[in-house]
Amino acid sequence: MSVMERPSILRLADPARIAELAHREYQAGEYERAELHCMQLFHQDPENTSTLLLLSSIHFQCRRMERSAYFSHLAIKQNPLMAEAYSNLGNVFKERGQLKEAIDNYRHALSIKPDFIDGYINLAAALVAAGDMESAVNAYATALQYNPDLYCVRSDLGNLLKALGRLNEAKVSNHLSASTRCDYRLP
């Protein structure tokens, strides 16, 4: 089977298989291939929120902010309670330097899904960029309440506390982060 034959075979394949392949390609950083497969799914079912969310993430990774926002908006239109779509939209706003809009979208995502760890991490980063360090500390601390083993978050919190002059709290956070490993990655 030649490489040229492969896409036509995938068009006939089960949408679940194509979606699984697109997710694997996305995780591997093969964004163009993941987009190709997602677009096949999108043409079959333009209302599938999982496909819309993945397309938003792919376009964000490829620095195509307008397209990322477009697919986030489509996902929100299909499911206004999809916290991940608001978080993706927040990422676009943050990247554009529109911090108020980013923070609003992250907070909205968290109002929908209070245990959404990525939402707290994204919110904390936007709050730091906006200069609201105390609120960022609270966002990081909340993420750690849901998963205390997040080394990177604990380390970021420790560094933020140190920058705020809260050295004893920073020592505790950094000591705890040294006992775990960094295996958490943002999308």
TrEMBL record:
What keywords are annotated for this sequence in UniProt?
TPR repeat
Cite a single GO MF annotation: protein O-acetylglucosaminyltransferase activity
One matching Pfam family: TPR_11
Superkingdom of source = Eukaryota
- Gene3D superfamilies reported for this sequence: Tetratricopeptide repeat domain
Q: Which PROSITE patterns match?
A: TPR, TPR_REGION
Where does the record place its TPR repeats?
83-116, 117-150
Which BP terms from GO are recorded? protein O-linked glycosylation
Signal peptide extent: none
Protein's UniProt keywords contain Ribosomal protein: no
The keyword Lipid metabolism is assigned to this record: no
Name of protein? Uncharacterized protein
Supply the source organism for this entry: Paragonimus skrjabini miyazakii
